[in-house]
C-alpha cells in the first residue's frame, strides 16, 4: 500500500524533500510516489509527510484511493459552500 499523487498536483516541490523513504520524484506531468519505496512514513512520523505539507486539496490519495486532504480540509471551506460562492461570483 502506498500514497499516490494525482493530476491536481501543481509540482510545487513541497513533498519531495520531506519523504523519509525518498519515494517521491519529479516526473511529468506531476510528481510521483514510487509504491515500492513508500512506507507511508510508518516508523518515522505519525502522519505521512507528503500529505502534511501538500497545499493542494485532493492531490494525494491514501492507500484506499481516497483524498488524503479532501476538499475543505485545508481551507476550512466545505465544498457545498465553495460551489455556492462560485455560483454567486459567476452570476455577477
From TrEMBL:
Its cofactor is [4Fe-4S] cluster. Coiled coil: none annotated. It comes from the Bacteria. Residues 1-29 form the 4Fe-4S ferredoxin-type domain. Keywords: 4Fe-4S, Electron transport, Iron, Iron-sulfur, Metal-binding, Transport. GO terms for molecular function: 4 iron, 4 sulfur cluster binding; metal ion binding. This is Ferredoxin.
Amino acid at each position: 500500500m502506498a500514497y499516490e499523487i494525482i493530476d491536481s498536483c501543481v509540482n510545487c516541490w513541497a513533498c519531495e524533500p520531506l519523504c523519509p523513504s525518498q519515494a517521491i520524484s519529479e516526473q511529468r506531468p506531476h510528481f510521483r510516489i514510487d509504491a515500492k519505496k513508500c512506507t507511508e512514513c510508518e516508523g518515522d512520523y505519525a502522519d505521512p509527510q507528503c500529505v502534511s505539507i501538500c497545499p493542494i486539496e485532493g492531490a494525494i490519495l491514501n492507500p484506499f484511493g481516497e483524498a488524503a486532504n479532501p476538499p475543505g480540509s485545508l481551507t476550512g471551506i466545505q465544498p457545498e459552500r465553495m460551489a455556492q460562492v462560485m455560483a454567486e461570483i459567476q452570476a455577477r
